């Protein structure tokens, strides 16, 4: 976010610069030093943080253990639970336990592995040839210095930045910030933030961390100002200033007080330069009621649209696409592809199916083998190799289908752009017109039998084999004219039956036009689930089974969840169509993806992506180890985002109607995804409410269901409020007490504890939550607003997310039952 400030008169600028310099000089020289004497050292030890602290204790210099991989010599904020690192020495080379950083007797600061005596890093102050180091000190502004006896800084971390700048820090021309590789990997990544010698401030991307070819994706365009520096002043405002005191370019203005907030600005691993603040006290902030880092500005605001790599990688790598999630670029794989490295999405996606064979001229029509996955508002730049004008979308599809080189195609305003593999610079954004279709192989159609599962015979092969048997039979029975005529009639009947069956299946696929879903036969479903062998869940409308689908690539099988409806009656037929129509048109990271369906005679089934960590109910109420406090709140936030998409992000507004822990599923990384749209109620664009029979689950149903009132999205907000209380307290909404055999209602108990200021009773068995009762209070207040009896008093899901993230304050809620 860029703010250009009008320049005041020159004499005011000079006065401002002088006063700022005088103030900063005074602060720097007024620092209370806790000297680190020559000969001092620190040892890296497991589960024992070794550091030199600043006088106030706000910053520390020493060793931090990184995911049990090794130790990082670093500076961090030490008064906050997160211990956020702002500088590091050996990000590319973590050291083992027992390593030592030593300020030697002759003033050298060295990082050494004692066993090998290998010097991993040292503070280089060789420019000061005559320098004599007298001591070291960790300052209260986050700067670690080596100083002479008269307190002149001969070396300092402020002049050797890594990825972060702090208030009171200045970068001169030629200085560069290097983003880390990943959030928890401190080696140098792909992105750089550089103040060039000509005065231009530039964000660069590299093809890989080891690449030397830099690609600029953002610049301040201030290259006509040779005398320039980047300033982060005492209040955290970040700007480019010339030597005469004029502010040339403002990156992030001052909007908060340094007295009330910790501040930092960082070039993060995704290539975005962000300024963060952290409230020192929850009572002093009108920005965030939660004591956590909160982003004030991002540069650039949408990385997905700005970074277009000449080499084709973009923010996310080949065959993947980028989506902007509240200023953060997130990487995704299209259907038929998967991440090369699930732990590093920037490496791109690999194709999970066998490509179209250019030499297979005798194969069945490609429409029988391949299909298209649709990406509305999507594109892959720099992948075009051919295009057509004034054509239809159907022409575009058929032309790509017939071309073995075509991996995808973009159709926009009568133009068809064919894309070659690997696909590059992918992104989806509402500002992109048209759609992209990705060609993928249909399930069960592999060009080689070694990748197939089951009989190993493709449909064309089986057809040829049956024809051969008929011909052989005819020859053997040629002595009987009657038998030949009989055999011919049987062949005609079988062929006609197969054609009718195929026509029926095609018609079934037309039940849900415009959706790119796999239409399974019932026999395929039985094979996938091994005759419905493993049940993984059940509900009022159906049972869910685990299935294994053969991959078209070389990676074996992948898991799916198959939902079978219990009774095929009028109501479940409606539910089936509602669920396919609702989920099939959605696309959000916090919603379970529908992959296909079966609608064959009396069999109606849905095929979803498989969630490896089961449901939220299983981890909240099960016997296995429970989720920690931060993980639970993250799940609450992700669930709210999924609901917001259903309420506001879809072309047709969807009321879920059955939000509960059993319908919040967790993937392998414990990210939450809303599932089970079997009871979903769809609203047209001109509707805001509807009337229907009572739907949902006891304990989560909003009061208006029982009062013949119109039903709106606020029924989901009510259910979410109950769910949020269960997440906070790690217990069910209805639960038998230990003292008497009665049911204690969680919502009533939670409000009583809140009103009596006894919130510790809600989380008394959770040490992490007990240490963060301010946050517990905030989330309880949010839940109380969600379960107000009057729908008008409940917030929208957008408001809920804003309250969770801290962008708006949470007012004091009334008693939910008072109305």
TrEMBL record:
Gene3D superfamilies referenced in this protein's UniProt entry, alphabetically: Bulb-type lectin domain, Phosphorylase Kinase, domain 1, Transferase(Phosphotransferase) domain 1
Cross-referenced SUPFAM superfamilies: alpha-D-mannose-specific plant lectins, Protein kinase-like (PK-like)
Root EC class: transferase
Domain Protein kinase: start-end pairs: 530-808
KW Transmembrane (keyword) present: yes
Residues of the Bulb-type lectin domain: 34-159, 162-288
Keyword vocabulary terms for this entry: ATP-binding, Disulfide bond, EGF-like domain, Glycoprotein, Kinase, Lectin, Membrane, Nucleotide-binding, Receptor, Serine/threonine-protein kinase, Signal, Transferase, Transmembrane, Transmembrane helix
CDD domains reported in the protein's UniProt record: EGF, PAN_AP_plant
GO cellular component, one term: membrane
Reaction(s) catalysed (UniProt annotation): L-seryl-[protein] + ATP = O-phospho-L-seryl-[protein] + ADP + H(+); L-threonyl-[protein] + ATP = O-phospho-L-threonyl-[protein] + ADP + H(+)
EC number: 2.7.11.1
InterPro entries in the cross-refs: Bulb-type_lectin_dom, Bulb-type_lectin_dom_sf, G-type_lectin_kinases/EP1-like, Kinase-like_dom_sf, Prot_kinase_dom, Protein_kinase_ATP_BS, Ser/Thr_kinase_AS, SRK-like_kinase
Membrane is among the record's keywords: yes
Molecular function in Gene Ontology: ATP binding; carbohydrate binding; protein serine/threonine kinase activity
Compartment(s): Membrane
Transmembrane segments: 469-494
Membrane topology qualifier: Single-pass type I membrane protein
UniProt-annotated binding residues for ATP: 563
Annotated family: Belongs to the protein kinase superfamily. Ser/Thr protein kinase family.
Identification of the protein by name: Receptor-like serine/threonine-protein kinase
Naturally occurring in which organism (per UniProt): Rhamnella rubrinervis
Lineage: Eukaryota, Viridiplantae, Streptophyta, Embryophyta, Tracheophyta
